[in-house]
Amino acid sequence: MVENQDIFSNGMKLPVMEEFYTLQGEGYNMGKAAYFVRIGGCDVGCSWCDSKESWNESLFPPVDVNLIIENIRRSGADTVVVTGGEPSLYPLDYFTEKLVSYGIITMVETSGAHELTGKWDWICLSPKKYSPPKGSIYNKVNELKVIIKNKSDIEWAELNSELVSSKVHLFLQPEWSNIPKIMPVLTEYIMNTPKWRMSLQSHKYMGIP
Q: What total number of domains does the chain contain?
């Protein structure tokens, strides 16, 4: 769990791990230029997580979000993606409302393990079995992206797909370290179940953040 939550209670500061301008690598918005803000702190703890260094919030001193917004505006980006860690641990209303006031598109990638705050143009839900989403988020999402490490994870994906609107974009994404084993399984499954699309971590192939 996040410690010293009172430091972040008004959303004026956040434990930002890193920020960078790059191309979105995954899911529906793959290839779109976006400014990424990775927030430290996560209590979900996926064994295959590729950013485990983000889990411990105390490693990342609180940052004034207005400074982050200045960096975003200087970059020229028209879209911001907030990721983690787990963004739903923090109050994000102030940050997102300021971004919206500057005409910046706001996107978030979250497991939904806690109630999500903030004003979002796009919500990508990536649910995890051992810390499932809060029910309220299912009615808000634009994209459902489920990480598949083993064939059994497909059942979890299907359970979640039944909880979102028929308008939500559905993606299955092979877990990076298990791609040789799981890719043929996902390819066949999506061909037989075309409501799903494949998501790949294309940024890793491109060698960008």
A: 1
Spatial separation of the C-alpha atoms in residues 52 and 61, rounded to whole Å: 17
Q: Which token pair is 74?
A: 């200087």
Distance (Å, whole) CA 80 – CA 72: 8
pLDDT tens profile 163-205: 999 999 999 999 999 999 999 999 999 999 999 999 999 988 8
Whichever domain contains 9, its CATH number is 3.20.20.70
Torsion sign (Cα): 51, 52, 55, 56: negative
CA 165, 168, 170 angle in degrees (round to 5)?
120
Domain limits at 151?
A: 5-206
Q: What is the pTM of this model?
A: 0.93
Structure tokens at 175: 């877990």
Q: What is the pLDDT of residues 90-130, one digit of tens each?
A: 999 999 999 999 999 999 999 999 999 999 999 999 999 98
